[in-house]
Automatic annotation (TrEMBL):
Species lineage: Bacteria, Pseudomonadati, Pseudomonadota, Alphaproteobacteria, Rhodospirillales
Keyword Transferase: yes
GO molecular function: CoA-transferase activity
Keyword terms of this UniProt record: Transferase
Protein name: CoA-transferase
Domain of life: Bacteria
Pfam families: CoA_transf_3 (PF02515)
Provenance organism: Thalassospira alkalitolerans
Keyword Transferase: yes
InterPro entries tied to this protein: CoA-transferase_III_domain (IPR050483), CoA-Trfase_fam_III (IPR003673), CoA-Trfase_III_dom3_sf (IPR044855), CoA-Trfase_III_dom_1_sf (IPR023606)
Length: 407
């Protein structure tokens, strides 16, 4: 049985993370993704290491872990799109694809005749998704956009990190490139919606997706906290602006996360923590009142939490149905029995590394399960296959393209 997107062909002109994350998501679900790369260089992330995948002798391969994280299940075709011959190959591919994905700067592909208007003339049903920092219009449209700077400009860093008055308090970025990841997921969702429309009407369309737009959208409750009050929320460290207690607390040997989401859970927590009287105190009996009095409540909880070790607290709190958890390092994450049970880490055959690990797509389909993933491709690994089978070029034509440096 094929994946849910078997038969969908994606021409992926993107590189680095946001675009490749979108196309990897589509590939996981069965789409054929043809990744276009620069001859001799490829996607920038191939060299974003260490660490790199190791060969059988323990030596570094040319595949950085960063690249491996976002390019599973694709075919790599090297094409010099700056040359007319390369542009012609891309146009031939676009005529036989359902989707084009790119993250060039605004207008960057128009000079090559590879923009939406040009490719739509060849294939009116094409779904063409452009990812940029700031979108195709507006005063910032020509600026480059990178995850770190967008986290700052889009407000995420203003609500992430410890308050200024705390030791070391300063704005902080998230530990992974969440704007790129979310943009990739929004791109995949948008592409599938446009494909659904294309299948119903025969009409393709253009998708304009901006990192800043995505960052603003995923402010979620924090964005609405501002819009409903006119007051910009600040940094609370690990605390939650709308729920108390909902943060990290020190224990006798480390830290634990308490995520008390309602008044019943708070009452249960107080009972097992030996602070029953707080649940009946009018200052703390409801979440509204706990948020208003967090400055007096949180120190009282801290005093109780430091009396036991983290694992002891988890055993007690889970029995009382109080949401909690440890702050795991990644070695503990991947050794977690639940993570193992969910088959989160898989190993894929690789031409030079033997096997490379991958973190599986988390979507669990009942009818079209994600299966038969392939390792991220070596640079140009599928060039001749794609040109021969999809573009229908002869061996002589492929040899000529190689001779003049197009592939």
């Amino acid at each position: 049985m094929g994946g849910a997107l078997t038969g969908l062909r994606v021409l992926d002109l993107s590189r680095v993370l946001a675009g490749p994350w979108a196309s990897q998501t589509l590939a996981d679900m069965g789409a054929e993704v043809i990744k276009i790369e620069r001859p001799g260089a490829g996607d920038d992330t191939r060299g974003w290491g260490p660490p790199y995948a190791k060969d059988s002798a323990g030596n570094d391969t040319s595949e950085a872990a960063y690249y491996l994280s976002a390019n599973r299940g694709k075919k790599s075709l090297t094409i010099d799109i700056t040359k007319p011959e390369g542009q012609d190959v891309i146009r031939q591919l676009a005529a036989k694809c359902d989707v084009v994905l790119e993250n060039f700067k605004v207008g960057g592909l128009a000079k090559y005749g590879l923009d939406y208007t040009s490719l739509c003339a060849i294939n009116p049903g094409i779904v063409y998704c452009s990812i940029t920092g700031f979108g195709q219009d507006g005063p910032y449209k020509d600026r480059p956009g990178y995850d770190f700077m967008i986290q700052a400009m889009g407000g995420l860093m203003s609500v992430t990190g410890a308050p200024d008055q705390d030791t070391g308090g300063q704005p902080m970025k998230v530990g992974v490139a969440v704007v790129d990841i979310f943009t990739g997921l929004y791109a995949a969702v948008g592409i599938l919606a446009a494909v659904r429309h294309r299948d119903a009407t025969g009409e393709g369309q253009y998708i304009d997706l901006a990192l800043l737009d995505v960052q603003t959208a995923i402010l979620a409750n924090q964005g609405m906290n501002f819009l409903t009050t006119g007051k910009a929320p600040g940094r609370l460290g690990n605390a939650h602006p709308n729920i108390v207690p909902y943060e990290a607390f020190p224990t006798a040997d480390g830290y634990i996360i308490l995520a008390v989401g309602n008044d019943s859970q708070f009452k249960s927590f107080c009972a097992v923590a030996g602070i029953d009287h707080l649940a009946d105190d009018e200052r703390y009996a409801t979440n509204r009142s706990r948020v208003a009095h967090r400055e007096t409540l949180v120190p009282l909880i801290r005093q109780a939490m430091v009396m036991k070790a983290t694992d002891d607290w988890i055993a007690i709190l889970e029995t009382a149905n109080v949401p909690c958890g440890p702050i795991n390092t990644l070695d503990r994450v991947f050794d977690n029995p639940q993570v193992k049970h969910r088959d989160t880490v898989r190993y894929l055959d690789h031409p030079t590394a033997g096997k490379v690990p991958t973190v599986a797509n988390p979507i669990k389909f009942s009818k079209t399960p994600i299966m038969d993933e392939t390792a991220p491709p070596m640079l140009g690994q599928h060039s001749e296959e794609v040109l021969r089978e999809t573009v229908k070029l002869s061996d002589e034509q492929i040899a000529q393209l190689r001779a003049i440096g197009i592939i």
